Amino acid sequence: MFLNDPDTVPEADRLLEAQHFAKVIEAFNHYRLHSLSRNAKRRRDLASIPKAHQQLVGSFMEKKINSVEERILKNAAFIASIVAGHQNEETNGGTKSQVSEGDMDKVRSTLRQFVRDWSEEGREERARTYDPILDELQTRFKGVSMEDKGKIKVLVPGAGLGRLAYDIVKQGYSCQGNEFSFYMLLASHFVLNQTQQLHQYEIFPWIHSFSNSTSTDVLLSSVRIPDVLPGDVPRTADFSMVAGDFCEVYGEEEHIESWDVVVTCFFMDTAKNIVEYIDIIKRILKPNGLWINLGPLLYHWEGMQNELSIELSLDEFKQVIRTKGFKIENERTIETTYASNTRGMLKYVYECAYFVGVKH
Amino acid sequence: MFLNDPDTVPEADRLLEAQHFAKVIEAFNHYRLHSLSRNAKRRRDLASIPKAHQQLVGSFMEKKINSVEERILKNAAFIASIVAGHQNEETNGGTKSQVSEGDMDKVRSTLRQFVRDWSEEGREERARTYDPILDELQTRFKGVSMEDKGKIKVLVPGAGLGRLAYDIVKQGYSCQGNEFSFYMLLASHFVLNQTQQLHQYEIFPWIHSFSNSTSTDVLLSSVRIPDVLPGDVPRTADFSMVAGDFCEVYGEEEHIESWDVVVTCFFMDTAKNIVEYIDIIKRILKPNGLWINLGPLLYHWEGMQNELSIELSLDEFKQVIRTKGFKIENERTIETTYASNTRGMLKYVYECAYFVGVKH
Q1: Residue A118 within any structural domain of the chain
Q2: B258 within some domain
Q3: Residue A143: its pLDDT value, please?
């Protein structure tokens, strides 16, 4: 389910890409050591507090730290299956690790992303964010036969672990997911192509922070993936995942007026220049094509010193969309968390903008 | 309203303190330049996007960037009044600025803290977090005369900008706020002692990030402080604010069994060793004294490589409290934001633990 046409990618880009890919593999490989080391610090901290305090917390804290250690090893085994078969693409196996705390953060959030996209526990979040999109498609293409739905081409940029794209294909539409991050690409490739049975893998996504835990049981609890078995999609529908930068891939001429629907879910704020995203979406949609958007405006590049960042408020964003020639329909606000532990003491709640832009 | 006894502070500590104080003053002074520079980058970014995109967003983005510039200058004038009179305590006026992005973050969050503690806009958050505490005191000390309430000594560690301590004094209790951060201490000193009229100052707390803004009007909107005029407290009650580290100040012998009530509101998770906090609270309370707690467990030192951090889950936290000899009463969960822009598209929602610990 992955498209990669080596002929369309310039040599220099391919080299950069290979280096970046190797870095991601290295980060995945480094998870075990890094997590064990952070957990070991807890053991040292515990040993350094007064004896009287150790008597109060020592027994259960040691047990918790040991349990987390066991679970780190299990997560590491899971991560090893994700990178298995990609190891030979690593370029700097011998040299000192260049893995940063930020890279490790991405590995940990990949685990949480599995919860959001491919577990029972993620069902509520998916119901809040994917269902309105699936319902919109259903309303717009009501009465279209399964056979003909396969001719409707839906593009999902920022596809992450691919669940939304997969759910769209399950409805009968042809769908292409596009994703820039190799963390997401490796993980989505794994779940889409290499899972053989329901609940095959057990992961422990909440062990990496001890803060805001209601209970140790919650902290140590596991999540099983996948909740559905990817693969069984309608034979009339095409499903693909494409690696690469949205602007680079879909800025190409071949995409002009070639898509019936573009679905942006928690995607628009990944832009350095959001106007360029809007431009491209307009250009690649067929006349009367639909743009379904759902997400906040947490601009990923804001405040980064050497990166371009154009940040529109929601009212300005919509103003630009209208000026570009979209009719905005079904506007509303959808409140949701994102890859959140529902049983934790802190939640990031997004007031997402939802709307459909009709190209005219 | 500030207590400072120079005789009890060792010379070395006083020097460290003076240096830290100077650094905070420097950060406040640096706000104007830093914020203008970040805003100027937006202007450069705007100039660097394609002309067609500039035509779409240029006019309103330039206007917004200019409006933010004006407001930065107004915030800077407000900040100048906070540090006015403390300037001579600065030690390294001539040297190169040592102000980090983290320091600037603290200056910006001090502005948001004013919203939480001293504005009409903060009323909802205060109702959710301070009212349960004030109600608890009212229930526990029902029927006590105003005169006698002044003899009840309440301690509020992590007092921030002092509103909770002030509200407690307004009810007739004597209250001491304790605060470690000089950002908070300078700002609370200012609002408590140097405001002469309601809504005297206009600040613009939401201009520093363009992300997750529903509208430019919200981004540019002002907040007026204070919503009440501090000063008019019952003559039978004592009100003081004490600077310093909670463990250092209240670990002293003089505090043993000297407090009727300790109120910890968003405070316990500032501990490096939370067991030490519990220890001290137990020790400084009179027999049958009350500990009222409200807050999450977002351990401030978790994950910092060279800092001790002991992180209990909520169930473990309560277990320790019981073992230490507290009876836990009125347990519940209170959902609230913290210094949040109610009209933004992202909210951090805390599921706070609330309970009363009765020392026995």
Answers
A1: yes
A2: yes
A3: 95
